[in-house]
Specification:
Largest sheet: 7 strands, antiparallel
Number of strands: 16
CATH superfamily of the largest domain: PPM-type phosphatase domain
Helix content: 25-40%
Number of domains: 2
Number of helices: 11
CATH topology of the largest domain: Phosphatase 2c, domain 1
Bound molecules: manganese (II) ion
CATH class of the largest domain: Alpha Beta
Order of helices and strands: EEEHHEEEEEHHEEHHHEEHEEEHEHH
Shape: rod-shaped
Distance between the termini: 100 Å
Length: about 400
């Protein structure tokens, strides 16, 4: 079981013409709503939201019931603003603390909130903020664009990123509260938290002050500090408290989050571009690699073989394919000085057709057998032996 005692106070403050804050607390539900909008429409939105939460939570005292009530309040406020021109643009924050029953029958405190009204937990005089503000400046703090000190004075600290009555869909922060008997929870509108620092909030909210004393002096202190907005404070103190059998802390959205396939065109383009940024050099390297590889394969093939041929009337050894491959022309690697005209006509014909040899050694060996003992090669330098000239051979 969980049981609390409670007290609340709300005040118009010193500057505003009306109090657009609304507050409600009973034995199982505490709500603060900070309305906004002209022509007193802010009051309508905050009161309407509290009524929707009260009736919704009475019907269904689960986390889901509380969340559904906030969703219903959002739709109700939106529809009312659409039907009533005086209510155009109205909206409200909401922070609700409910004693919710889970499926194991455990009753424990749960917070649901949208906007910049806050919940704090007090234990032994120390204060801890439980909620994150849904304001532009605070979102920027979470993104690392602002420090908390910069956000506290930033012009956009009051501009909400989420609120009741703003859009058809809504994202609600839902969290279980881990409390001990004797802990207090403070719910408040920004008219309190903007005027008082956390040390003052902690001191004025805690024992020895009773709950009733505490809420009154919190409001009075905020007025003394300027009272520039409506001020609302709710305090509950747990006599006994249970912990939810499966505590939660998450943002529940009434829209289905987009899946990767449904990414926006801009996001898709960005992703594509990023991929290109590392793929382009890789593709270039592969292209160059293939090109260089092909060059060497053709080069190797073009010069992988030898043949004997007629080099301006003398027998010569060539490296390469007869006629050449692409721009790789055969290279004369050895000239025997043997006169082709001195060879038998059959050998002359073979030389004209070229005589292929697989290796340089084989080609050189073949030249020494062109002139059989029966054949007079009649070479001017017949005495030049292959072995003696080999040492002077030059490629190309
Ligand atoms: Mn306010």
């Amino acid at each position: 079981m969980t049981h609390w005692r409670h007290a609340e106070a709300t005040d118009i403050g010193l500057v505003r013409q009306s109090n657009q804050d609304a507050v409600y607390v009973d034995d199982s539900l505490a709500i603060v709503a900070d309305g906004m909008g002209g022509h007193a429409a802010g009051e309508v939105a905050s009161e309407m939201t509290i009524e929707m939460l009260r009736s919704g939570f009475v019907e269904n005292e689960t986390v889901e019931g509380l969340y559904n009530a906030i969703n219903a309040a959002n739709i109700t406020v939106l529809n009312d603003a659409r039907e009533n021109p005086n209510h155009f643009g109205m909206g409200t924050t909401v922070i609700a603390l409910g004693l919710t029953v889970d499926n194991e029958g455990v009753t424990s405190p749960t917070i649901c909130h949208v906007g910049d009204s806050r919940a704090y937990q007090l234990r032994d005089g120390a204060l801890r903020q439980l909620t994150e503000d849904h304001s532009v400046a605070e979102e920027w703090v979470r993104m690392g664009r602002l420090t908390p000190e910069e956000a506290a004075v930033h012009p956009r600290r009051h501009q909400l990123t989420r609120g009741i009555g703003v859009e058809d869909t809504i994202a609600v922060d839902v969290m279980s509260v881990q409390a001990l008997a004797g802990d207090r929870l403070l719910l408040c509108s920004d008219g309190l938290s903007n005027e008082l620092d956390s040390d003052t909030l902690a001191r004025l909210s805690s024992a020895p002050f009773t709950l009733e004393e505490a809420v009154v002096q919190l409001v009075d202190a905020a007025k003394e500090a300027g009272g520039r907005d409506n001020i609302t404070a709710v305090l509950v103190e747990f006599d006994e408290v249970s912990v939810a059998s499966s505590p939660i802390k998450r943002t529940i959205s009434s829209t289905t989050p987009p899946v990767a396939r449904a990414a926006t065109p801009a996001a898709t383009k960005r992703r594509k571009r990023r991929r290109l940024s590392w793929r382009t050099p890789a593709a270039l390297l592969i292209f160059i690699g293939v090109f260089v590889g092909a060059y060497f394969i053709v080069h190797w093939y073009a010069y992988s073989t030898y043949y004997l041929g007629n080099d301006a009337g003398t027998v010569a050894v060539f490296q390469g394919q007869p006629g050449g491959i692409l721009w790789f022309k055969p290279i004369m690697v050895h000239d025997t000085k043997y006169q082709v005209s001195a060879l038998p006509s059959t050998v002359q014909n073979q030389l004209t057709q070229t005589i292929p040899e697989p290796t340089r050694a084989a080609a050189l060996y073949a030249t020494t057998h062109l002139c059989s003992p029966a054949t007079s090669c009649n070479s001017t330098s017949a005495s030049t032996t292959t072995t003696s000239t080999t040492t002077t051979l030059k490629k190309g």
